[in-house]
Amino acid sequence: MSLTIRPAERRDAEHIAAWNIAMAWETEEKRLDPATIARGVEAVFDEPRRGFYMIAELDGEAVGCLLVTYEWSDWRCGDFWWIQSVYVVASARRSGAFRAMYAEVTRRATEASAVGVRLYVETENLRAQGTYEKLGMEKCHYFMYEAMI
After folding, report:
1. pTM for this one?
2. Which residues are in the N-acetyltransferase domain (predicted)?
């Protein structure tokens, strides 16, 4: 098995949108509107300041993705890179796809002088939490709050 990680290209948008829909259903049983998610994915390609996607390929076939967005920290005078919208197709899970994408993101973040890499995870998703901890990530002492507009 050959695993490669590459920056996403616009031609990947359909896969990324479909994987976001699958991830939302698998993790939260939430249905996403396909037209909205398609526009949301395209918006990342339209405005690189929003972030970028990475694609994992197994034997030349796209099997997963993640999105990186940026958060400015005035406390640290630098950017945190947020990993979001992580998805690996079921047949490629436990293949090292996420581990490889994470390694590439942290390499790029280091080169860009980011101050850290963050992500959030569902409180019940113990398998994912274990994966992140094995990669050296630590649970933060912050809770997340939101107000939808």
Report:
1. 0.91
2. 3-149
Beta carbons of 63 and 88 less than 8 angstroms apart = yes
Rounded Cα distance between 141 and 136, Å, is: 16
CA 52 vs. chain centroid, Å, equals: 9
Q: Are strands 61-73 and 52-58 parallel, antiparallel or unpaired?
A: antiparallel
CA angle, residues 34, 36, 38, in degrees to nearest 5: 65
* Residue-level pLDDT at 104: 98
Using an 8 Å Cβ cutoff, are 21 and 32 in contact? Answer: yes
Q: Are 98 and 64 in contact (CB under 8 A)?
A: yes
The residue among 54, 60, 46, 116 whose CA lies nearest residue 87 is 54
pLDDT digits (tens, 9 = 90+) for 46-75: 999 999 999 999 999 999 999 999 999 999
> What are the structural domain ranges in the chain?
3-134
Its CATH architecture, for the domain 3-134, is 3-Layer(aba) Sandwich (3.40)
